[in-house]
Write a structure and sequence with these properties.
Elements (H helix, E strand, L loop, with lengths): L5 E5 L3 H12 L3 E5 L11 E4 L2 E4 L5 E2 L3 H9 L4 H4 E4 L2 E3 L5 E3 L5 H11 L5 H16 L10 H4 L5 H16 L8 H13 L7 E4 L3 H4 L1 H10 L3 E3 L7 E4 L2 E4 L2 E3 L1 E4 L3 H8 L4 H8 L3 E10 L9 E3 L10 E4 H5 L4 E6 L3 H6 L1 H20 L4 E13 L11 E3 L2 E3 L12 H14 L2
Bound molecules: flavin-adenine dinucleotide.
The site of flavin-adenine dinucleotide has 35 residues, from α1, β15, β19 and α16.
């Protein structure tokens, strides 16, 4: 990176922290500007009357290699911080996909063959379809939705496996979600080597998983961290840039797409228009308490439909010592946002009581409902996402930047590293 000595990173989410860490490791003088009072962005810890909760339960998978490497770089003991289990999407009544340790492809095939409750013809249909996807390199018509991709499969396969996987991975309902991106996620989970499909469930609050250790690492390495500082303007000055008047050789825009569009509206209107055109899908997390609760698995799938909002339940006692606390995740939550958080919370508790009743021990009491209206971009077929490079010395990072992944921690971290590489 011959010409950049000082770099401003605007935004301290996971993409900004990845960019700041990369740039600091490359010997640059780095300033991180974050408008919130804490780092972490959409994957952060929030204080709920003294109880440290996350803004939403996050799941990582073994294929998140760059996220795991970044956590290690800043001193996180990944084996302690994350509970690693083979992929399991199990429902309370005992059905579900349960992969065993081993080569992911073989483990997936065996898990489908063992799937309790599916007919032989349903299993054969999924296995032959999955083989066809593998033979065609996990590619399909760019215009297809996941619903279209899976339209010939039996309803049980779609409802019990593909639709929950789709909404968990892309946060986009199957009837709107890009089949191309869905197949790419499946390919990376199944073909990136041993353990790539494993679930990695946080045992720590999100703040401790990356933002806090990254802040300590950056401060020790001499980077400057400015919290509660919203950047108002980014202006060119010769080959350099002024960030609210302060001069930097280069700038990484690692803020939200809407803020990146605002900051580039004058200098790069086409890029700004593309960033502004993204649409979003919400995620709602309902936290509830039942003393003595212990779920059979720390993460369980739930049957969701128009009356039952949540697709997954997490036992935070089993995961991170918050005994008696459950988190219910409602992805692809636009319809429930429309109904309001009181209705959503009541429907979630009724769903949980009915589905998990025998495991609860006592009645569930709502603790908090967190709605993230712009949780992720809507990952639709043929979506054009803005590129990393904007202008010389001005680059962008974030889960919404063009790349192979949907809006995920891994997409954010990869984009942060790529943004710094693009400055050279
Ligand atoms: C509820 C929920 C659940 C999720 N679950 C999962 C999951 O299970 N697995 C997974 O991989 N991903 C999940 N995601 C997605 C994941 O959290 C995001 O992809 C990732 O956090 C995005 O990081 P980012 O750095 O790109 O963006 P952000 O986290 O949005 O970071 C942008 C930062 O820029 C700051 N900022 C904005 N404007 C300015 C400005 N003008 N000046 C200074 N700072 C500014 C913001 O405050 C923010 O901190 C989930 C997201 C949500 C909301």
């Amino acid at each position: 990176m011959p010409f950049a000595h000082s770099v401003a990173v605007i935004g301290g989410g996971w993409a900004g922290l990845a960019a700041a860490t990369s740039a600091t490791a490359a010997g640059l003088r780095v300033s991180v500007h974050e408008m919130a009072p804490q780092l972490g962005g959409r994957a952060r810890t929030i204080d709920s009357h003294g109880l440290p909760l996350d803004n939403g339960q996050h799941i990582l998978i073994g294929a998140y290699t760059e996220t795991l490497a970044l956590m290690r770089t800043v001193g996180v003991d990944v084996s302690q911080a994350l509970l690693r289990t083979p992929l399991r999407i199990c429902y309370p009544e005992g059905s579900g996909l349960q992969m065993r340790p081993g080569a992911p492809v073989l483990a997936f095939l065996a898990a489908v063959a063992r799937y309790p409750g599916w007919s032989l013809s349903a299993k054969a249909a999924l296995l032959s379809t999955a083989s066809r996807w593998a033979l065609t390199g996990f590619r399909c018509d760019e215009t297809w939705t996941v619903e279209r991709l899976a339209s010939h499969l039996p309803p049980a396969v779609r409802q019990d496996l593909l639709e929950p996987l789709c909404v968990a991975a892309l946060n986009t309902p199957a009837n709107q979600a890009s089949a191309t991106v869905f197949l790419r996620v499946l390919r990376d989970a199944l073909f990136s080597g041993p353990g790539s499909a494993d679930l990695l469930l946080p045992r720590l609050r999100l703040g401790e998983l990356l933002p806090d250790p990254a802040a300590r690492w950056l401060a020790q390495a001499g980077a400057k961290l400015h919290l509660s500082r919203r950047v108002e303007s980014v202006q060119p000055e010769g080959t350099a840039w002024r960030v609210d008047g302060e001069r930097f050789d280069a700038v990484v825009l690692a803020c939200s797409a809407a803020e990146a569009a605002r900051l580039t509206a004058d200098v790069a209107p086409d890029w700004a228009a593309q960033a502004r055109s993204l649409q979003y899908e919400p995620i709602i997390t309902v936290y509830a308490r039942a003393s003595g609760v212990r779920l059979p698995d720390p993460m369980m799938a739930l049957h969701a439909d128009a009356a039952r909002p949540a697709q997954f339940a997490f036992d935070l006692g089993a995961l991170c010592g918050l005994d008696g606390l459950l988190a219910f995740v409602i992805s692809g939550a636009a319809a429930w946002v429309g109904r309001g958080s009181d209705v959503t919370q009541t429907a979630t508790l009724a769903q949980a009581q009915q589905a998990l009743g025998s495991h609860l021990g006592s009645e569930l009491v709502a603790v908090r409902c967190v709605t993230e209206k712009r949780a992720t971009f809507l990952c639709t077929p043929g979506l054009q996402r803005p590129p990393t490079r904007i202008l010389p010395g001005l680059v962008a990072a974030g889960d919404f930047i063009d790349g192979p992944y949907p809006a995920t921690l891994e997409g954010a971290v990869r984009s942060g590293h790529l943004a710094v590489e693009a400055l050279s």
